């Protein structure tokens, strides 16, 4: 099967079903008669910008990241204001705490922007580590997040 056809089927599956793991996605593809490996699915997920988010019921599921008509920078700023709870810089690393279930999607937006002050990100359920090449870059990222988050 061609990659474009497989990816179209993946998009259809994750829009119609609650899929939260690569194993569940592989099983759903196999049920449709589409064989794939975990490595292939992993590449598809990355290329398609599939992220985990909570749906209206609070269930964690895969969804395709779309930024609509907003620029990625606008989307980042909006997301920081909506979901970031705390920011702490430790040397050249920033630790970002988010509302539960928002770490991965916020990190995906940040990765897409390719800030020169960001060497890499590591995201979890509600925490993101942003690794910078030096302290000055980490301070820039810390200031960027601090200025955009809403403190209640």
From TrEMBL:
Residue ranges the record marks as coiled coil: none
Residue ranges constituting the Arginine repressor DNA-binding domain according to the UniProt record: 1-68
Pathway linked to the protein: Amino-acid biosynthesis; L-arginine biosynthesis [regulation]
Keyword DNA-binding tagged: yes
Arginine repressor C-terminal domain residues: 81-146
Keywords recorded for this protein, A-Z: Amino-acid biosynthesis, Arginine biosynthesis, Cytoplasm, DNA-binding, Repressor, Transcription, Transcription regulation
Major localization listed first in the record, in broad terms: cytoplasm
SUPFAM superfamilies, alphabetized: C-terminal domain of arginine repressor (SSF55252), Winged helix' DNA-binding domain (SSF46785)
HAMAP family membership: Arg_repressor
Family: Belongs to the ArgR family.
Role: Regulates arginine biosynthesis genes.
Protein name: Arginine repressor
Gene expressing this chain: argR
């Amino acid at each position: 099967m061609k990659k474009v056809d497989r990816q179209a089927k993946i998009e259809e599956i994750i829009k119609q079903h609650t899929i939260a793991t690569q194993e569940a996605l592989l099983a759903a593809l196999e049920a449709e008669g589409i064989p794939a490996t975990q490595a292939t699915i992993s590449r598809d997920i990355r290329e398609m910008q599939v992220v985990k988010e909570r749906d209206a019921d609070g269930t964690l599921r895969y969804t395709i990241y779309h930024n609509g008509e907003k620029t990625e920078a606008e989307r980042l700023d909006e997301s920081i204001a909506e979901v970031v709870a705390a920011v702490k810089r430790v040397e050249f690393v920033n630790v970002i705490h988010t509302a539960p279930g928002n770490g991965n999607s916020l990190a995906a937006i940040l990765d897409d922007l390719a800030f020169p002050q960001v060497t890499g990100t590591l995201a979890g359920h509600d925490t993101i580590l942003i690794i910078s090449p030096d302290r000055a870059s980490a301070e820039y990222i810390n200031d960027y997040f601090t200025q955009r988050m809403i403190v209640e």
